[in-house]
Write a structure and sequence with these properties.
- This protein is of the alpha+beta class and about 190 residues long.
- The chain has one domain (about 10-185).
- The protein contains six helices and eight strands; from the N terminus they run βαβββαββαβααβα.
- It has helices spanning about 20-30, 75-80, 115-125, 150-155, 160-165, 180-185, and strands at about 10-15, 40-45, 50-55, 60-70, 90-100, 105-110, 135, 175.
- An eight-stranded mixed sheet has the order 1-6-5-4-3-2-7-8.
- It is globular.
């Protein structure tokens, strides 16, 4: 028996911004489909982070799949950890669908305690992914997902190979390694 609150499993409209739309089209709109698509990990708030990955199944209306984590000290490793290793974090899997005449739709794929709260926070966070409000958790190319080491590539968040064949311009911030501790110290 499903004990999720009434309406939790219903898909709800989500307004995705032009950055996510541009990245999705750039990655999946080429002549040949990519072998893999990147996973973007955005820090949305001190206690909320979203991992989102563009998808193109060819037969499905799924545009993105993702996961959201809520809790303290979320890092890239938090998304890679096994569920048993991150019991202090709440999480939810989701999909973003092309609802055709309804626009883009957010659909939860798993539930947890206080599910409506996390669903609402995630929908709001996805609509706010734009320069100045979001930070990436790791220096990875937004187009191919490879790690970045060059300072110029880190600044534009697109690697040298992808920069030559992409017109996407991004100006997000990278989360500094010390940033969570600095925020915690400022709160004390």
């Amino acid at each position: 028996m499903d004990s999720a609150p009434h309406g939790y499993w219903d898909a709800v409209p989500v307004e995705l911004n032009s950055l996510l739309i541009s990245l999705h089209d750039c990655i999946l709109g080429g002549d040949k489909p990519p072998r893999r698509t990147p996973k973007w990990r955005f820090k949305c708030a001190p206690d909320l982070a979203v991992e989102i990955q563009p998808k193109d199944y060819g037969y499905s209306l799924v545009l993105f799949e993702g996961r959201v984590l809520e809790g303290d000290d979320i890092t890239v490793e938090s998304f890679k950890a096994r569920r048993a290793d991150s019991r202090e974090l709440k999480g939810m899997h989701f999909r973003i669908l092309d609802g055709c005449d309804k626009g883009w739709l957010f659909e939860p794929r798993s539930r947890m305690a206080n599910a409506h709260h996390l669903k609402a926070r995630t929908v709001l966070a996805l609509s706010e992914i734009f320069p100045g409000r979001m930070v990436l958790l790791s220096p990875s190319c937004l187009i191919c997902g490879k790690g970045l080491s060059d300072p110029v590539s880190k600044a534009r968040l697109i690697g040298p190979e992808c920069a030559g064949r992409s017109s996407v311009v991004v100006s997000l911030r990278l989360m500094e390694i010390d940033e969570p501790r600095t925020q915690a110290a400022a709160a004390d």
